[in-house]
Amino acid sequence: MALLGKEARPSIENMIIEKNKVVVVDYKLQKDNAQGELVEETTGGEPLKFIFGIGMMIPGFESELEGKKSGDEVAFQVHSEDAYGEYEDEALIDIAIENFQVDGKVDYDNLKLGQMITMQDMQGGVHRGVIKKVGLDKVQVDFNHPMAGQDLFFTVNVREVREATESELDHGHVHE
Q: Are residues 110 and 162 in the same domain?
């Protein structure tokens, strides 16, 4: 029965995932497929909360969740091009050792293989990379995302779908 002068609103239980909705999910992420190496899992811990459709999540993840609702469980593969992109050889950069000087000296003890570093380019952009090689005159840094070139497999349980508040949309993230 419809109320006069008001539109019937869908209950939270029936609200579907679409742009500007807050989505709360538990998920398991594995490399390649359902038998792949476990990367991370939220089940039993803090769920993932995000605003759908504003670029917070990888495209393949969002496209598989669109139209789902609270209580839905889905499992799907996301190919690397719809996740963190293909691995780009051009993102493996040799940087002159002078760029790592502090007070005129290079502290080689702080340049460790596998170390995550943050650097700023000439335009002020900030980039994160991983040290791959340390030489006498240069340091090789990989600026690819750590999961670039990797197909991913997700198992997702949708816990909740709700309207995002104006404040959440203004700030671009979910508030508690």
A: no
